[in-house]
Amino acid sequence: MKIENKITLDYVMLLILLSLMMLPFTGIIIHEILGLIFFILTLIHILNNKNWIKNIFKSKFIKDMSLKKALTFFVNSLLFILFIITIASGIMVSVVLFRFINIQYKEMFYQIHIISSYGLFILSIVHLFMHIKMIKALFRKKSSAR
């Protein structure tokens, strides 16, 4: 996938995540549908970055890891964990798309969903800003090409 498309995907994901954080305004149906779309887009995002993920597990990558790479690894790992927790807990408390899932302790899963989603939102912004130099360079390249 071209870098421009990757950045577009990132911004669409951020806009959807912003919308997901506004449940009182969107309503539960839109919230759950956007959550499902966000899940799919995140999987596409992860697949687009599979080479970076593969390199993590190569011993050379771990040995030669700079502070920046270590921070990126930490943020991305925590982001992935929060993503899984948010999606799983969202499915557990679903009242529209997955209402057939009947579980006990729904209130506990709701609290987990709220806490993990705020963490996911904050780390998503951190993740985006960690790539700001690349984004700025792309926009400079685009504007100078005109």
List segments where confidence is low: pLDDT < 50 over at least 5 consecutive residues: none
Tally of helical runs: 8
Secondary structure tally: strands? 0
Number of domains: 1
Strand content: under 5%
* Gyration radius, in Å: 17 Å
Mean pLDDT: 86
Report the biggest beta sheet as strand number plus sense, adding barrel if it closes.
none
Approximately how much helix is present in the residues?
Answer: over 70%
Oligomer: single chain
Shape: globular
- Write the H/E string, N to C: HHHHHHHH
Determine the N-to-C terminus distance: 22 Å
Structural class: mainly alpha
Give an overview in words:
- By secondary structure, the protein is mainly alpha-helical.
- It has one domain (3-144).
- Helix content is 82%, strand content 0%.
- It has eight helices and no strands.
- The two termini are 22 Å apart.
